[in-house]
């Protein structure tokens, strides 16, 4: 499958809450970080203070899942890749899509990942706040579903046959007969 259809959907590290280079509160690579609780100097790259176990500034420990994850779970990546493969098969194959069609499939893949991450958050943390109100994630979920639907409509729901040149079959039959 073409790598253009499967873009790296990981967010730009500079836009992440705690970028790998240390960010605003953290240290650049090779420098030390001061624990905000106990004041102990720690080497950069550590996730937690060795003395009091508090998370250090610019740690990467919490970035194991969610939109800013360093890597999304393998099951999520695999199921979304299977989803994209199914879309491409329904459209007659990658070669049958235009450049814009491939771009729409790429964007739909990204939106599908975000939609699944939001749905997972709702499953884990619930839809309602402790006081009984609806969490803001519900609005984000509905907005993402709407965007997903708009992209899916652009791609189309009907299956399309792969274009076959009838002369290719004749050439193949002639070559087979001449063997």
Report on this structure:
- With 179 residues, the protein is mostly helical.
- Helix content is 42%, strand content 3%.
- A hairpin with a 6-residue loop joins strand 1 and strand 2 (41-43).
- Helix 1 (74-90) packs antiparallel against helix 2 (99-125) and helix 2 (99-125) packs antiparallel against helix 3 (137-155).
- The longest helix has 27 residues, at 99-125.
- The model is unreliable at 1-27 (pLDDT under 50).
What attributes does this structure have?
179 residues; mainly alpha; 4 helices; 42% helix; disordered N terminus
Largest sheet: 2 strands, antiparallel
> What's the overall geometry?
elongated
Strand tally is 2
Arithmetic mean pLDDT: 79
Structure class: mainly alpha
Rg (CA only):
24 Å
Low-confidence stretches: 1-27
Side-by-side strand order of the widest sheet: 1-2
> Can you count the helices?
4
How far the N terminus sits from the C terminus, by CA atoms, comes to 33 Å
Q: Beta-strand level of the residues, as a percent range?
A: under 5%
Which sequence of SSEs, written as H and E, runs from N to C?
A: EEHHHH
Percentage of residues assigned to helices: 40-55%
Describe, in short, the structure shown.
The protein contains 4 helices and 2 strands. The chain has 179 residues and is mainly alpha-helical.
List the helices and strands and how they pair.
Elements: E1 32-34, E2 41-43, H1 74-90, H2 99-125, H3 137-155, H4 166-177
